[in-house]
Design goal:
The protein is mainly α. The protein contains 16 helices and no strands. It has helices spanning 12-38, 40-47, 51-75, 81-101, 105-132, 139-168, 172-191, 203-207, 213-233, 236-243, 251-275, 277-298, 302-330, 335-362, 369-394, 401-413.
């Protein structure tokens, strides 16, 4: 055995620092994605456009995520995953810095598209990398720990950066996330071990995941099921002010409460994914249906509504680690690309939920209606997950920690 080779699994402080390094990138990505929504009006004024035009800056970022996830992951197939995530976070930092200097609206659209490109690829590769640092029985938790950076961003990073942007200028947000990106690069350099690229890895093999019916079913589970979550969250602010009667200055505190729920849900969701991927997805889907209907029912009362904001953040995040694990195991020979597709799916879910919510609101059903729509989408996502599970069993595809342990045993016996 080569004594210089890093151990297969990390533990203790070594594992903690490696996870923090990877999670820091998720924190920066979360801040740049969600803080833009809170600084929409300031950005529109600076660029001399309407709020609706400024909304396209957010949409352009999402398009970048959908395009970049499969494209950059495939291009990075032959690169060691540590080097790949380093390159991705550097691209993220440079793109956000270019947004800071963007002189006009058209240039801003381009730079935000570029900023979105590494989003899904980073989370996909960082999730696979983290999963490879721990035993198979802990893989769901490792993925959740990396995703935790995104949740923590919603608790503290987004409100603080939004406040900073309101006080000293909205473009300061881009400088903050650029600094976070560079810090992430340094932490990954120091704390994440370098391992050779997987034998036989290639762009063609990664892209083969797109031929898998099972991968598309897994993506549909996320798009439809999580679309229900975004149907509610996209209109949470006017729901709280118009239906609940909450003062608008308290909305950021309510959103921070939602962020705390995301942190709790991510931690629990990782353990549930290690227990049973399909079990976790079905449990989270049922809880989403119930919580959205309850949210619609209690929206007239402040305290119950705030409690349900926390619950919605929790049950939504329960789903993410299991969805990522499901995609990875649905394409065992192209796990990196499959994992990155989770974030493409979530951004499509964002667009789907927001669009359906807008339809029922425009039709005059009020701000409670998106919650009912969301419950319907979550129920449909549950049905797709059930079909996905049946098909996986029919073709003999093992999903979850057992799949990882089985593959390791096969490799060691060769």
């Amino acid at each position: 055995m080569n004594r210089l080779a890093p151990p297969r699994y990390l533990e203790g402080r070594t594992l903690l620092f490696a996870i923090i390094a990877l999670g820091m990138g998720g924190f920066g990505i979360g801040v740049t994605e969600f803080a833009m929504m809170g600084l929409l009006q300031e950005g529109a004024e600076d660029l001399n456009v309407t709020n609706s035009q400024m909304g396209l800056v957010i949409s352009t970022y999402a398009i970048g995520v959908v395009v970049g996830a499969p494209l950059l992951t495939a291009l990075a197939a032959k690169i060691p995953k540590k080097r790949a995530v380093q390159l991705l976070i550097l691209l993220f930092a440079v793109a956000n810095l270019s947004s800071f200097f963007a002189p006009d609206y058209g240039t801003m659209l381009i730079t935000r598209f570029l900023s979105g490109l590494p989003h899904g690829a980073y989370f996909g590769l960082a999730g696979v990398l983290a999963g490879n640092l721990v035993p198979g029985s802990m893989r769901g938790r490792a993925i959740a720990w990396v995703m935790l950076g995104l949740s923590v961003a919603n608790v503290g990073g987004v409100p603080l950066v939004t406040l900073l942007g309101q006080e000293v200028g909205w473009r300061s947000m881009f400088l903050v996330v650029t600094a976070v990106g560079l810090l992430t690069f340094a932490l990954i350099t120091v704390f994440v071990p370098l391992r050779k690229a997987e034998a036989g890895a290639s762009m063609r093999r990664e892209l083969s995941a797109l031929k898998s019916v099972q991968v598309w079913l897994a993506m549909a589970t996320g798009i439809v099921g999580f679309g229900g979550f975004f149907a509610v969250y996209s209109y949470i602010s006017p729901t709280l002010t118009d239906e609940t009667g909450l003062n608008i200055v308290l909305v950021p505190l309510a959103l921070a409460l939602y962020g705390v729920g995301m942190v709790v849900g991510s931690l629990i969701g990782g353990r549930l994914a290690d227990w049973s991927v399909f079990g976790a997805i079905k449990l989270a889907s049922v809880l989403m249906v119930v919580s959205m209907l309850v949210f619609a029912a209690v929206a007239s009362w402040v305290i119950p509504t705030l409690i349900m904001v926390f619950v919605l953040g929790s049950v939504g995040s329960l789903l993410i680690p299991s969805l990522q694990t499901l995609l990875m195991d649905s394409a065992p020979h192209a796990q990196s690309l499959a994992a990155s597709l989770n974030h493409s799916a979530l951004n499509v879910a964002n667009a789907l939920g927001a669009a359906l919510g807008a339809i029922v609101i425009t039709a005059g059903f009020g701000y409670r209606a998106p919650s009912v729509v969301g419950a319907g989408l979550a129920a449909l996502g549950l049905l797709i997950a059930w079909i996905t599970q049946i098909r996986a069993q029919k073709i003999g595809l093992v999903i979850g920690a057992a799949a990882v342990l089985e593959r390791i045993d096969e490799q060691e016996t060769r």
